Amino acid sequence: MKEKGNTAAVTARTPVIGLPRALLYEREAVMWKAFFSSLGMRGIISAPTNREMLRLGAEAAIDEVCLSTKIYLGHVRSLFGKCDLILVPRVSNYGLHRNMCTKFESLYDLVCNVFRNTGQRFLAYNVDVLGGISEEKAFVDLGMALGFGRKDAVRAFRRAGRAAAEDWHKKISREERLYRTDQIKVLVAGHSYLTEDAYIGRPLFQYLEEMGVVPIRADRVDRKEALRQSVRVSPTIKWEMSRELLGSIQMHKSKVDGLILMSAFPCGPDSMVNEMIIRKFPDIPILNIVMDNQDGTAGLETRLESFTDILKLKRGEL
Ligand code: SF4
């Protein structure tokens, strides 16, 4: 950024930022892209997940981490040599009872450690509202660390916030329309990085559609309302994204024929929350699917077919 009246010339190019298409990408992509482009920066996004990426991620990770983290590491690895800095945000919480899974808090350190000998450089912003770092401060600090002035960083953050809110509103409206169809409807409750993932989540949506079922994403919901509604089901759950899904189920349970819980193996929060959902919503047919480093989808297809048959039987369509 140049000061007014500055006559200097700089040949160093603005760094290109790599955005891994995994974990927070689906949730924050519009925000990130608008923020960096407002600052005049360029970004590059990793390709949709494929088998090779998952192999790379699994190779880099220890066995115990969840599938979503393995996929993330594969995306990070695929960006090497294509950008100067890879964005790896560190998000701890958005306030009281609004925590992120610990993976999001440790992600930057984990990535730096796993890829410590590669020479790749990473970029982080930190959100920790309980620790005094709001989302705005996190982004403004990021902009300033990249060499921009405070005013420009604040302007970029606000512009990005507006773009993200507008985009989210459109996505929710599209999803809301699906609840009004007469076909069999299934609410799919999974973290956005699973439901949106080309290799892991999308096939499930395609199978359902091929079977004449309308899948609706529980994560595409009015988040504030979902957080409010989640308290009616459980006042103690503290993970932000689990609470959003829980609230969404509470808001939409009477509008759908069935519910699919989609998780990554081994997910700590989901293993507890899904058990609770199964107990708290006894009136709705539920299918619990745990995704692993799958090589084939035959098992998944069979389970979806059986579940769909049950829903059809219930509606007298079989
Ligand atoms: S919530 Fe589960 S799937 Fe998501 S990052 Fe945490 S452990 Fe992994």
Primary descriptors:
318 residues, Rossmann fold, 4-stranded parallel β-sheet, 14% strand, binds iron/sulfur cluster
Question: What does this protein look like?
Answer:
With 318 residues, the protein is an alpha/beta fold. The protein folds into 2 domains: 16-166, Rossmann fold; 179-314, Rossmann fold, CATH 3.40.50.11900. 49% of the residues lie in helices and 14% in strands. It contains 12 helices and 10 strands. It has helices at residues 25-38, 51-60, 67-78, 102-114, 135-145, 150-178, 192-195, 202-210, 223-233, 240-252, 268-280, 298-314; strands at residues 16-19, 42-45, 85-87, 90-93, 121-123, 126-128, 184-190, 213-217, 258-264, 286-291. The protein has a 4-stranded parallel sheet with strand order 2-1-3-5, sandwiched between helices. β9 (258-264), α11 and β10 form a beta-alpha-beta unit. The protein starts with 15 loop residues before the first strand and ends with a helix. The model has no long low-confidence stretch (mean pLDDT 94). The structure holds iron/sulfur cluster (SF4).
Summarize the SSE layout with pairings.
Elements (H helix, E strand, L loop, with lengths): L15 E4 L5 H14 L3 E4 L5 H10 L6 H12 L6 E3 L2 E4 L8 H13 L6 E3 L2 E3 L6 H11 L4 H29 L5 E7 L1 H4 L6 H9 L2 E5 L5 H11 L6 H13 L5 E7 L3 H13 L5 E6 L6 H17 L4
Parallel strand pairs: 1-2, 1-3, 3-5, 4-6, 7-8, 7-9, 9-10
The structure holds iron/sulfur cluster.
The site of iron/sulfur cluster has 11 residues, from helix 3 and helix 11.
